[in-house]
Specification:
The complex is a heterodimer.
Chain A: E1 9-20, E2 23-35, E3 40-45, H1 51-58, E4 67-76, E5 79-80, H2 86-92, E6 97-100, H3 104-107, H4 114-126, H5 130-143, H6 160-172, E7 178-182, H7 190-207, E8 210-215, H8 218-224, E9 227-232, E10 235-241, H9 242-247, H10 252-259, E11 309-312, E12 315-317
Parallel strand pairs in A: 3-8, 3-9, 6-7, 7-8
Antiparallel strand pairs in A: 1-2, 1-4, 4-5, 9-10, 10-12, 11-12
Helix pairs in contact in A: 4-5, 4-6, 5-6, 6-7
Chain B: H1 2-17, H2 20-37, H3 39-42, H4 74-110, H5 112-127, H6 130-141, H7 145-172, H8 175-182, H9 187-195, H10 200-223, H11 235-242, H12 251-278
Helix pairs in contact in B: 1-12, 2-4, 2-12, 4-5, 4-7, 4-10, 4-12, 5-7, 6-7, 7-10, 8-9, 10-11, 10-12, 11-12
Classes of the chains: A alpha/beta, B mainly alpha.
């Protein structure tokens, strides 16, 4: 394997639990995936499936206590970021990896100008002077489609979509190699969603940034991702490139997800939801966490956790049916 | 950039201006500060000039506030006293506010045992009445202007620590703080650059209201003989020296007392107004 094929991000057996008074919340359980340079992966799952916790883990931002990384390693460029000291972690955040938060309304500091918030990042990591960092901030604003005259305005003077553009500008200010976008379009309305997604797609292509896009919208994934990973109850149940997962869907949960989407071509009056609810993460069922809801359940599913099985090159499924 | 900052300040100023009482407080306070600055020009006599031919004179055109038992002009002494009282009030409060805010921010931001240690120590300081605490500190250090300031400063620390800790707790869980950490900002940067400016409003209010309390505290210390020493014209010390004559020459206590009252009232009116003007919930 030469240097080019080495993955930028490699998550190995990552397990993150939140230890609370009401029990241990098993948020992320033994997930592994790779992300190549310049590749975009969609991380899809229901609310509470552990998507955000995974992203926070990759930023090493898990609040501790109550959060705790029980097991696993996160290799970025071959280095395990969980073993970084305080200083290395600070250099890593924002410079190598950065994050786009879900809600642009709360992700910007209300009392600093947007220019200052963008400039701060490059001042911090690239040791630019104040004037230089403002020039850079103005460039970044133009890049995300905001006129640079607005550099001295405060977040409350911007609309939601504009704020998310500012958040994107902050995240990209130091040309990070890895971008974690945590439902970047959830708080926006549909037309703005499309604009912001297109912008993000253009920018990461331009800079060759790798991205993990967290979403619960399977449509968004097809627009900008190369690969997709489906999460359920803290596990990645199915992962592969878009075609593999969308066309050769294997895992019963993924099938259920696609089955529950409304189709414009079908005349149905009801949607087809997956029966049951997500299990309580403090009290996951034995064996495969999906078995209580699974239409293809076998007796073995109740006792044995399925292993990650590669059923075709690059297409992994975690289900006993395919082991 | 300065332009926009002024924009925000102008909003606060506009809201403050609508509050008549606060404006009265502000005007009085400005006058008091001017008096303190130009004390040399305003006062007709030096504060320590003893004129034994004019002892215990009632207010007249020559001595508009009368003279004390040493024949010193009370008007001049009240004027010079403004300097001393404002100095004690502002300096000691600034020191107290700075130290208290830093401790409060550290306690609120880091939590855990750091929080427990700082806040329990604060609780202990708060459980002692301010004046008793100040007396204890002042009597340990001995009387004098600087020691009085230290005593007042220390006794104002716990209030600030509480207010700042509480505000820090509400701000630190905001997503923009997490975002600041996610771009690689360190603890001190997060506290001073991202948290502090967001909690400035309660600190300013606490400070304005606190200056009044500090002035009274300093006057009380001087009254008890633990503060500023004679012949320095401190209002509390003047009250103390004049209290023996309250029966017949009550004007001697009236004017320093009025000076304290008006100053503190002005500060409180302004503080209340500022609290309303800075409260984002009242924004319109």
């Amino acid at each position: 394997m030469n240097d080019k094929d080495k993955p930028l991000l490699s998550v190995r057996n990552l397990t993150i639990h939140y230890i609370t008074d009401n029990g241990v919340v098993k948020a992320v359980n033994d997930i592994s995936f790779d992300l190549a340079k310049g590749e975009t992966m969609g991380l899809v799952g229901e609310t509470g499936a552990g998507k955000t916790t995974t992203a926070l883990g990759i930023m090493n931002l898990i609040p501790n206590p109550p959060g705790k990384i029980i097991n696993g390693e996160i290799l970025v460029d071959g280095k395990n970021i969980l073993e970084f000291n305080k200083y290395q972690t600070r250099k890593y955040r924002g410079n190598v990896a950065s994050m786009i938060f879900q809600d642009p309304m709360t992700a910007l500091n209300p009392i600093l100008t947007v220019g200052e918030q963008i400039a701060e990042v490059s001042r911090y990591h690239n040791k630019l002077s104040k004037a230089e960092s403002y020039v850079k901030a103005a460039e970044m604003l133009e890049l995300v489609g905001i006129p640079s005259e607005r550099i001295n305005e405060y977040p409350h003077q911007f609309s939601g979509g504009m704020k998310q553009r500012v958040v994107i500008a902050i995240a990209l200010a130091c040309n990070p190699q890895l971008l974690l976008a945590d439902e970047p379009t959830t708080a926006l309305d549909v037309t703005i969603q499309a604009q912001v997604l297109a912008l993000m797609g253009d920018l990461i292509k331009k800079y060759g940034t790798s991205m993990v896009l967290i979403t619960h919208d399977l449509g968004v994934v097809t627009e900008i991702c190369d690969r997709v990973a489906i999460m359920y109850a803290g596990q990645i149940v199915e992962t592969g490139d878009l075609e593999a997962v969308y066309e050769h869907t294997k895992h019963p949960y993924t099938k259920g997800l696609f089955g529950s989407l409304p189709r414009i071509s079908d005349k149905t009056s009801r949607l087809n939801p997956i029966d049951g609810l997500m299990p309580d993460p403090t009290n996951l069922p034995n064996g495969c966490p999906f078995h209580p809801r699974c239409p293809d359940k076998m007796p073995e599913c109740e006792s044995r956790v399925p292993a990650n099985t590669e059923i075709e090159p690059g297409h992994f499924v975690r289900c006993l049916l395919y082991e | 950039m300065a332009n926009k900052k002024n924009g925000q300040l102008r909003d606060i100023w506009r809201r403050l201006k609508r509050n008549r009482l606060a404006m009265v407080g502000l005007v009085i306070l400005i006058l008091i500060v001017l008096v303190a600055i130009f004390a040399d020009v305003i006062a007709p006599y030096p504060y320590d000039l003893q004129n034994y031919s004019d002892v215990k004179q009632w207010p007249s055109s020559k001595y508009i506030f009368g003279t004390d038992n040493f024949g010193r002009d009370i008007f001049s002494r009240v004027i010079y006293g403004t300097r001393v009282s404002l100095q004690i009030g502002f300096i000691s409060l600034s020191v107290g506010a700075l130290v208290g805010s830093i401790f409060g921010a550290i306690a609120g931001y880091f939590g855990g045992w750091v929080d427990t240690v700082i806040m329990r120590f604060t609780d202990i300081l708060m459980s002692i009445p301010k004046i008793v605490l100040a007396i204890a500190i002042a009597s340990t250090l001995g009387p004098g202007l600087v020691n009085a300031m230290i005593a007042v400063a220390i006794s104002s620390i716990p209030n600030f620590a509480r207010v700042v800790r509480a505000s820090t707790l509400t701000v630190k869980d905001q997503e923009y703080i997490e975002a600041a950490i996610a771009i690689g900002a360190g603890n001190s940067r997060v506290i001073f650059r991202h948290i502090f400016p967001n909690i400035l409003a309660p600190i300013i209010v606490q400070a304005t209201l606190g200056v009044g309390v500090s002035i009274i505290l300093a006057a009380s210390l001087s009254f008890l003989g633990l503060g500023v020493e004679p012949p320095t014209p401190e209002w509390g010390a003047m009250l103390s020296a004049a209290r023996t004559y309250i029966r017949d020459e009550w004007y001697m206590v009236l004017f320093p007392g009025l000076a304290i009252m008006i100053t503190v009232l002005a500060l409180n009116l302004l503080g209340d107004g500022l609290r309303d003007a800075l409260d984002p919930k009242l924004k319109n």
